[in-house]
């Protein structure tokens, strides 16, 4: 089989352009994965480019159509995640509370696929050597462990994101949904869906509305 370097160059250029399009439209700035689905998208694109550029049986037009399908799928999932909390959880998953008030949830660890050794390793990496000193430890979708130590006043998570109350963040500061709704009413907010972001800091609730 004789390779056409012109075809390879064109296919590489099209792959690069598709990357630029996705980066610019999604507003991510780069393709660094922030969730499992982001990593899968990158793997799929790598498979498309690596498996096609040296295959003379796939024309440039066919390759372009494949790239367009990939772009449409990526942007569609991005749109669904942005506009639907159900699809966001279905596509990206959700954070898992591993430790609450000094008690380790073994079932949550099993669900996340973590052994006791791996949990303690993550804690030690954050300078924690006993679960009794942890008020809350949450495993993010990208595998990062976010820890709130006993005695910390401010949560590591916002209380509201994308119009949805984050219950584990409320629990970490010993507050209830009723308390949060009262705070929202004080700022003339009647509906949770009107709030894009709500942060709690030093006793104050800072809101960003849609």
Number of helices: 8
What structural class should be given to the helix and strand makeup? Answer: alpha+beta
Order of helices and strands: HHHHEEHHEEEEHHEE
Describe the biggest sheet? 4 strands, antiparallel
Radius of gyration: 22 Å
Alpha carbon gap, first and last residue? 57 Å
* Parts with pLDDT < 50 across at least 5 consecutive residues: none
Number of strands: 8
The percent range for helix content is 40-55%
In total, the number of domains comes to 3
Mass-distribution shape: flat
Strand content: 15-25%
| Average predicted confidence as pLDDT | 81
Strand order in the largest sheet: 2-1-3-4
Outline the structure in words.
There is one protein chain. Helices cover 49% and strands 17% of the residues. By secondary structure, the protein is of the alpha+beta class. It has three domains: 86 residues, no CATH class; 59 residues, bsu07140 like domains (CRO Repressor), CATH 3.30.240.20; 58 residues, bsu07140 like domains (CRO Repressor, 2-Layer Sandwich). It has a four-stranded antiparallel β-sheet. Strand 3 and strand 4 form a beta hairpin. It is flat.
Give descriptors for this structure.
210 residues; alpha+beta; CRO Repressor; 3 domains; four-stranded antiparallel beta sheet; 8 helices; 49% helix
């Amino acid at each position: 089989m004789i390779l056409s370097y012109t075809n390879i160059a064109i296919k590489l250029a099209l792959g690069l352009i598709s990357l630029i399009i996705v980066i610019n439209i999604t507003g991510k700035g780069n393709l660094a994965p922030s969730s499992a689905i982001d990593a899968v998208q990158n793997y799929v694109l790598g498979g498309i480019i690596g498996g096609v550029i040296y295959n003379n049986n796939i024309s440039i037009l066919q390759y372009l159509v494949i790239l367009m399908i990939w772009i449409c799928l990526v942007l569609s999932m991005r749109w669904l995640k942005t506009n639907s909390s159900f699809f966001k959880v279905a596509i990206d998953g959700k954070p898992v509370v591993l430790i609450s008030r000094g008690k380790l949830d073994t079932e949550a660890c099993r669900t996340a696929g973590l052994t006791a050794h791996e949990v303690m390793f993550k804690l030690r990496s954050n300078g924690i050597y006993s679960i009794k000193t942890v008020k809350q430890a949450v495993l993010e979708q990208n595998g990062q462990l976010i820890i709130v130590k006993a005695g910390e006043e401010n949560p590591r998570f916002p209380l509201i994101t994308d119009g949805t109350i984050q219950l584990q963040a409320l629990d970490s500061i010993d507050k209830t949904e009723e308390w949060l709704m009262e705070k929202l009413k004080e700022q003339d907010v009647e509906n949770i869906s009107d709030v894009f972001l709500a942060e709690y800091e030093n006793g104050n609730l800072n809101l960003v509305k849609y």
